[in-house]
Each structure stands twice: as structure tokens, then as C-alpha cells.
Specification:
Radius of gyration of chain A: 19 Å
Oligomer: heterodimer
Order of helices and strands of chain A: EEEHEEHEHHHEHEHEEHH
Structural class of chain A: alpha/beta
Largest sheet of chain B: 4 strands, mixed
Number of helices of chain B: 24
CATH topology of chain A: Rossmann fold
Number of domains of chain B: 3
Helix content of chain B: 55-70%
CATH superfamily of chain A: P-loop containing nucleotide triphosphate hydrolases
Order of helices and strands of chain B: HHEHEHEEHHHHHHHHHHHHHHHHHHHEEH
Shape of chain B: extended
Number of strands of chain B: 6
Amino acid sequence: MIRVEGLTKIFKKKNGSEFRAVDDFSFTAERGEIVSLLGVNGAGKTTMLRMLSTVLKPDEGDAILEGYSIRKNPDRVRGIIGFLSGDTGLYNRLTPREIITYFGRLYDVPSPEIEKRILEMSRLLDMEDFLDRKVDLLSTGMKQKVSICRSIIHNPPIMIFDEPTAGLDILTARTIVSFIHQCREDGKCILFSTHIMREAERIADKIEMIHQGRLLAEGSLSDLREETGYEDLDDIFVHYVNKHQVLTEEVTADEY
Amino acid sequence: MNIKKILIVFRKELLDLFRDRRTIISSVVLPIILYPVLMIGFNALMSRQTVKLHEQEVVIYIIDNANDEYSQIAYERLADTPKLQIFQEIDHYQVLFEEKVIQAIVTFEREDLFNGFSYLNARITFSRVDEKSELAYNTVSRELQELEKELVGSRLASINISEDILKAIDVEADNVATEQQTLGMILARFLPYFLILISISGSSVAAVDLVAGEKERGTLETILVSAASRMELVLGKFLAVITISLLTVLLNLASIFFSFRHLVSQAAAETVAIQIPFGSLFLILILMVPMIIFFAAIVFSFSTYARNMKESYSYTQPLMIVAMLLSLISALPAIETTLGMTLIPVINVSLMIKDIMMGDLNLSLFMTTLISTCILVVLAVSYSIKLFSREDILFRTTEDTEVVDRRKRGLRVLSPKFASLFFILILLLFYYLGLSWQIADLESGLIKTLLLLVFLPTLLIIKIGRLSFSEILSLKATKASNYLLILIATVPIFILVTLLAQIINIIYPFPEHYLESFQNLYFLEGRTFLYSLFLIALLPGIVEEVMFRGYFIKAFREKGIWNSIIISAILFAILHLDIFRFIPVAILGVWLGYILLKTGSIIIPILAHAANNALALFIARYGDSIPGMGIIISEDMITWWTVIPAAILFLAILAIFEKENKGYPAA
């Protein structure tokens, strides 16, 4: 499971002022649960996920993943998460088999185990034909399948998806969505970020709305509907954004 | 950190790099093919040229003004010479000579000697830039010199004296240079230069791909979230870069040696078996390994910092040019390997390679070169590792979304960017105008430089940027005690800075003409001391302080207090266009910047600057005539013991100054 407690990330701008990309953010995600981090572009989703995957160091707060702190045990944390983004991030000059084996080795998966898993996954995802072809020559859909395989080679208990369907055609996006469902069936804890309301509506068990680095609202779709009285997630989101803006304006007014 | 993971990363990166056609071409194919083709082609061309030249028939024109017995013999001799055709008695021979139909004109004149003897003067008109014409000259002069010997012999024989009487000194060349040295000398000229360039280009191909390339292709994040730690990643990648670079250098080196041996053995058939000096090769490799790692670390840092591959390549260009110039210095005949030289990066390794090739290696200098390079390697590698773990650098591609604050209030002249451009412009003006003014006339040149290239531009900047003069120039009053403290501080600072210059002089001796130029400045002909004081102390004090402590330090203010002090001091030192005094002037600049920000008044650094220059002038002119000065200055050097009292005095003044001036009011 993931437990995020008051996570904050501050970026320094060129003119010396500070910008809080993620601001005192807390939430939890359980095993067998799909949690969606929902927000517009620039809301702080990627920064949040990068902190959880230990690529960025938080300035305040902490997150505990399966008992490991991202501050104290970043190496352990990286070993138990699988990370997948829409941008496939594959090496063009290597073959899928080489790439998957490389990551498997980095995760300390024993070689026979790697081979076994590649065999299983390629049968499951129908990628036997292109396992030994250079990535350069593969289509986007094929590449995404390779990425999936790469992200799960070490069988991690936690999966993190950063806008996994961004820029993908409908068929490939479907592969990803069914992969996310598969992960839930396997009892993994899943966190995925998106700016597409429909996607969150369809697959998330719990939605964390993020705006300007802060938590706007959280809960299941039905909870949110109940609280706001709106049916459509678009309307619910706009409702919370407006409420947030009124609040912040009041705060700013108080300060002056 | 796990060695196994480093090796996993390393192996994968090598596999990835060798799948790239660019790596294969630049590190393997090019070195193997380039040199043999180059050398064989060059060789073939050379030998064909020589053969062709020797087979050629040359035409000469003879003007016989002597018309005597000797000219007749000489003519016959030349007429009998093979491949030499003689023209005579044509009107337009000059035209034919210009058109290169005739390669040389030989003019015979009779010169009378005593006792009715005479000799023949043969003037050969030819052109050395024309190979055929030179061949004509060589042939004619060789034949005539041989003829002269025969004639002198017969003259002596006619008075019953042996020809041997003419022999008094016989010069014989006995060249002790071994074949290794001869081969080495030719190779030594270009080998260091080649190796340095190859090691940079070799490592840049790999480094650019491994970091900037990963950023560009979006694979960097994937690898950062994997189980490998930053340290394991950076070391694995770094190892791959070094391997590629080492491989490139090795292949190039081997290819150069084999092609060169081939070339030499073809050109000179009599050199039976030229041994490749494998011992030298080994020593060169020992030197090149740290050099390669050093360049790899620099290029790796560039690649880490760059947003994409193109940017990374463009950062490599200046490095290439600087390294090229430094390694070319080793090819200058006047440069000898000294202790000082072994401390300058790139030059030291180039010189050492040259020495090794020439066969005169000094082991202690070799060791200092090796050690100083290794120290650089440690610094560069630790820096590049540090850079790789900085998240603001690694994510420069995506995180740079902030909007630049552009207030269109005139030009933003108080920005580091504008200040840098402005400085480069001033530097160019100094180099192209200021120096030539000062060469033409030292005194007026100095005044013109200070007023037109320093003072005027600074005022223009203030005007263009619509800045307030009092704000920029910090025309604030300060405590009276500060004036006194700064004046007293001039003496210890002058001593310390001069001592530093003396140390530099020991390591890198100042050229003679350099010292003379200072003498000229201090002893301007027909000028009073007061006038010199104005020219050397007061004017530069005001004008330079207005530019550096007035404008530049404020333009770099956003980089932090100490950064702005140090940057303005370095610019101050650069503009003096004087490599020998660079460090002393920079240190003085730091002091001037510091006292400006402390007191907030530009008068203070102006005073300190003018007092410092005045002291230098005073000592140069009157140092010898003051009784007791011999203890402090002997033989134009400040004695070394003065460092202790000077340092104590300076620290004491600094302490009082710090106490009196808390904080940085001008900052």
C-alpha cells in the first residue's frame, strides 16, 4: 500500500521566487485498489509521481510504500514499484528481449526467472513475433506492450502509471486499461495519473483531485457525486476548482 | 553501491553504443581506414612527384658576356649535361622565362684577377617557388662547381702545386640522432595534438548519447525509476564512455604507428628495420588514460547539463578548440618542458608525449604531469557524478516551464546575460583598438583606452538602461574610519599580492619585454611624478571602479553576494589582458568588490585602487632612494619574510573592518 503524508515539492524559479509544485498532499492507496490522480496539465501530478518513484526528493513530508520510506529507503522503494508512462521510454537500438532482460537484471531477478516471465508475458500480450526485432522498427502499440512487460518484470506490488494512455490510439489505450485491471486482479496497489475525466470515471476505485499542487477532493465516484450533487465528473471537478479558487482568493485578501 | 549493477549498466550501454552506426564509424572504422589511406596516398603522391621531377628536362638560357676560354668550357660542360637543354641568342628570352618555357637564365661575366688571371662569374636567375626552376638551378650550379674544381686543379698543376693544398678544414656531418629519434621527431610534432583531439571526440560521441541522448528519447526517467541507484547508473555509463574513448585512442594510435612505419620504410629504403618503440607507446598510454578520463568527465558533465544532444555537441566545440590550442603550444620549438609547464593541463601531457617520442624523458617531470592530471581527474569525475544527482539538472527538459519575467523598462542591462555580452564587446574593443592605441603611443593610448573604452561605455549603459547614476555608482557617504582603514590596508595587500606575483614569476618566468613595458609606464619621459600619479593611479582608479564595482558587480548581483564579487573580479582580471598578473589582479578585484558591498560607497574601492597603483608607482620610482627600504625590497623583489607582518596586519584590519561594517548595505 501507499501512504502519502504531507508531501511537498518546491521548485526555485530563475528570479529566485519559490513555486510549490506539490503542496502538503496526503492520501492512501490500498492493495487491490486503483487510485486515480486527476488534475489538469501542470497541476503537479507528474511531480507527485516522480517523488513517489524517488526520482525527485520531497522538500517536506514523506510517503511510505509497503513499509519503505521514500526518504530513508529510496533504493528499496524503487525495487517494489513498476513505473509506466505514455512515453514508452525504450532503447531504440535494442530488442524487446534485451531491454526486458536488462531491467530484470537491475531488479535482481534471476536469469531463468526473467526468461520464464518474458515467455509468459509475450504469450499473454501477443508479442512473440517481435521479441527479437529492434525497437526502432516497432509500432507504437508494440512498443507499449514492451513497456508494460518491462515495468512488471520484477512483479512489483505497486504499479505507478503516469498518463499511461496519453498520445495512444484507441486500441493501444485499451491494452493499457485492461493491463491496469489485470494488475488489480493480481492484488497490486495501483496509482495512475490522468487529465482525462472519462478515464478516471471508468477505471478508478478512488479519485484524488489535484489542483495547483493541492488536494481538492477525494473519494469514490459515488461519494463525490453525492457530495456535490453533480452526475458528470467534469462538473464535479469544475465545482471543486471554483470552490478552491474562492477559498484562495479569500486567503490572499486576508493577507493584504 | 553494487559492482554487479554497475557492470550490468556498463554492458548494456556498450551494447547500445555498438549498435549505433556513429560509434562504429568514428571509433573503429575511421581510425583503421583513415591513416593508412592518408599515408599511402600521401606517399604515392610524393614519390610520383619526385620521380616526375627528376625525369624532367629543363631549359636554360645562356648569356655569354665573358666570351673567353672559361665561358667556352663552361658552355660545353652544360651542353654535355643530360636533361639540360640550352637556348641562346633569342630576343624574347625574358618573356619565355616569365612563361616558364625557360627555367633559368645563366649570365657569364669575366672578372679579372691579378697576374693576368681571371675567373668566370656565372649568375643563375631562377625562382625558388617553381620546382622545375629550382631543379635547373641545382643542376647548373652542381655542374659548374665541379668544373671549377677541375679548373683550379689544372691551374695549380701548371705551377707545380698539388690540389691538396687547398684543403684546410674538412667539415663532416656525423648525425647521432637514432632512427627512433628521427622517427620520433616527425611523429612528436603531430601526435599529441591528434591524441588529445581523438580522446575528446571519442568520448563525446558516447557521452552525448548516454545522457543527453536518453533525455532526448525520454528513456532517462525509466532508468532512474529502476532499481539501480544514481551512483550505479552514473558509474556504469561513465565506464562505457571511457571504454569507447580508450578504444578510439588505442585504435588511432595503432593505426598511426603502423601507417607511419609503412610510410617511412617506403620513403627511405635504406632504413632497414624501423622498430616501433613499444616502450614509448606504453608510456604514452599511461599518460593518456587519465587524460581520457578527464575529458570523458567534462564531456559527460556537458551531456548531463544539456537539454538535448544538439546542445550537448555545441558545448563540446569550445572544449575542442581550447584543447587544440593548448596541445598546439607543445609543438612550438621554444617551449621546453619545465616544472611550471607540467602543472598546466593538456599542455603538460602534450609536452610529455613529445618528449617521450623524442627519446628524452625526464622521469620526475613525467611523474608530476601524471599526478597533476590525476588530481584533475578526481575533481572532474566527482563533479560530473555530483551533477548527475542534481534533479534540477536532470529534468531540465521538462521542468523549465516557468515564464520569464520581461519587464520592458528599457533594456534589462542589470542582468548577467546582458553584462556578459557587454563585457565581450568591451574585451574585443580592448583587444582590437586599445592594444593598438597603446602600441602606437603608450601614454595617449592609455588615456584613450580608459576614457573611450571603459568610462564612456559604462555611462552609455547607465543611460540605455535608464538607471539612476547615484544608485549604480553607490555614491553614498560612509564612515570616516573606513577611509583610513582602507588606506592602511593598501600596504599589506600590495605586499601580499606582489608576493603572489613573485611566486608565479618563479613558476612561469615573466618575459623580459613584459617587465620592460612596466618600466616604460612608470618612467614616462618628461613627466612629473604628479602627472604619472594621475595617469596611473587616479584615472584608472575612478574609471575602472565605475565599470567593475559600479556596473558589473550589480549586474551579477542576482547570482549571490560572493558570486557577484568573484565574477566581477575575474572580469576585471581578464580585461587587463595579462596572463601573468591574472591571479593577483583577480584577488585585488575580490578585495575591491568586497569593500564596495560592505561600505556601499564607490569612493572606497576607488580610493583603494588608486592607492594600490600609487604605491606601485612610488616604489618603482623612489624605492631605491629611501633609506632602509633594502630590508623590504632587494633586487626588485619584495623579501619573503614580509608575508608574516603583512598577513597579520591585513587580518587585523579585516577584523576591525568587519566589526565596523556589519552586513552588506550595497547588496
